[in-house]
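Intended use. Records such as the NADP-dependent oxidoreductase domain-containing protein entry shown here are meant for training and evaluating sequence-to-structure methods. They are not intended to support clinical decisions.
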Amino acid sequence: MWPGPYSEWGSKKNIIASCDQSLKRLQSDYVDIFYHHRPDPDTPIEETARALDLLVQQGKALYIGISNYSAEQTKAITKVFRALGTPFIIHQPRYNMLDRWIEDGLTDVLADEGIGAITFSPLAQGLLTNRYLNGIPADSRVARPDSPFLSPEKVDQTISTVQELNKIAQQRGQSLSEMALAWNLQQPTVASVLVGASRLSQLQDSVHALDNLTFTAEELAAIQKILA
């Protein structure tokens, strides 16, 4: 947020200042949900939790969310929030067919604590779309040398998997991206997904995922076999 100490992470100084700066940019008195986007290894989790709770007390946020917290970190901060009476309602993790880390404990914690997940990167930066089914298009961001998230190597590593998933999507009468979003939503702890779009057609494609959210046991087993 600014040069020098306390410029990021989870200290009370950073959290309060970050919220104040965001509200100033938004020209708003409050936000519906204020997220803490990553746990701070150098700040006690109690300080982070109390700072987030203070935002609610000050009327700057109605609810609190966290992002990228592990199962144990989520359990720890939830305990503090419950003691404080903080309206902590949502966890925002990265989750998609190619990145299922939340299934290794986090989904259990969310279910036990009654907290929903709103997942980001559900299409794996475009890997779970028809964009790279037949290789890397010359005008794609993967083809650019400055692409921060995707690389030709990553496309090469996943292309056979994505092609097999696309066959199941076609059998379901969906595009690959529609099926990928529907698959996210069939996870019981996932309340919603965050979708990005650079064109209206991409957003329309995402919305059509709602046309078929049900998977048969055979489809889930086939998907699991491909992803294993």
